[in-house]
Amino acid sequence: MPDDKRIAVLGAGMHPWGKWGRPFVEYGLAAARDALADAGLSWRDIQFVSGADTIRNGYPGFVAGATFAQALGWTGARVSSCYAACASGAAAIGNARAQILAGLCDVALVVGADTTPKGFFAPVGGGDRKDDPDWLRFHLMGATNPTYFALYARRRMDRFGATEEDFAQVKVKNARHGLANPYARYRGEVTVEEVLSSPMVADPLRLLEICATSDGGAALVLTSMDFARRHSGGAEPAVTINAVSTVTPSFPNTVIEMPNFSTDSAVAFSGEWETGAGFRPSITSAAYAEAGIGPEDLDLAEVYDLSAALELDWYEDIGLCGEGEAEKLLRDGATSLGGRVPVNPSGGLSCFGEAIPAQAIAQVCECVWQLRGTAQGHQVEGARVAVTANQGLFGHGSSVVLSR
Amino acid sequence: MPTRVPAVEGWFTLGDEGPPALLGSRCTACGTYAFPAEAQFCRNPDCVGQEFETVELSRRGRIWSYTDARYKPPPPYVAADPYVPFCLAAVELAAEKLVVMGQVTEGVTVDDLKVGDEVELVVDTLYAEDDHDYLVWKWRPVSPGQEG
What are the chain A neighbours of B44 within 8 Å (beta carbons)? Predict the structure, then answer.
């Protein structure tokens, strides 16, 4: 692959996920320092800081890039802060990559961190906001995030014969993957029986199948290919980012999505009306096209398992199998460590819980360690190509292709 | 008698004259529907239409998927005390080619629902406060005898 689309990943760092109750800046700084040390660079080497915003921590969270820069000590580095819901991390990586590929900088630091409240995510901010669909969906329907995940899960059961046990097996697999991951919040085996006896939250999804909300932080040091070669005395960088997809949906989006009340109307659409082909498949296909690969080239994938059932949707959406074949792929062990293409070797959101602006960056950190061969206790042997996939509400795609 | 008021203005008719209906918009240029109604721009990227008529959406549709809320949703949802779980459904409207969500009427459980079942729109109490009944649209299963 030519250099004009690639950037090097020199450093990756994370603060362990948990419910620590500390200011988000602490997690971001811990991750940033680890990423800088990993890269063998100092904070003064950073020319561009790209922050992924948190919207639950006041003004400093809305200007996360500057907040981290100030905490590390002002150096005059250029800065950006961006929000794209669950896709914020990928958007921040995309901003840094654009600066590097445009030749505007050589070395960038990407940071995302969050401190989260307990329980269901509720809309941010007070007062009556009758022009905000995210406020209105809670007020008018009592529709939480798991409501939407459950609609997809039920539809899978109805269309493809997925069973409650299939969903539980996803949880069992991911719990096993995360056992040895020092950054995971939940590290313990669970059985199918334990999953199926956990409380039903949004039928057919149970408590152990729904992603928790977590505190955490993740950071990356990204550089131009030339800088990476100079920095290592001429050697090629160990891991590169070959594509970043931050696509929006295409009209008509016929799958109901958070926080909406309805889908697009397909009456003006000349094709066949399908209420099954939504936004998600386009997210990775754009990334594959940019990287010049296909799903058959993947050695592993980190996907956004907001629910255990949603992980099965992703198998099809990222092209690991055809529609309706995800359950078979799971049952055959293809997506477990040791299988053909392990999915969520980190343990996924199932073991981490979600720290929104950090999560898409954490997915990339995991891929970096997998591609370097240093993911102790959960290594995908001989991994060469990895993809991350995720979707942020209000139409934010997020996918990153990495290789070694 | 409590005063009946919609929990949100202009999203549905109360059914005082004829059966209740959701109020959507229809682009006069390309025919694209939207719910809640669009007033400024058409969602169709190939359409520059800026005129919309307010239309009553189909009162019946088929369940695209469904779930329930076993735990009390957080505010701004106003939950009854004690909390009573409810179902939600996403419903396909064939004429408009779109899917609309909503709560399912009280007393219905997930065991009563199937993907593809026919449901019809009703207006029902969302919550009661200060001598007012705040109303919202809900989906009610069409009993077998009423189908067709």
Answer: 251-252, 268
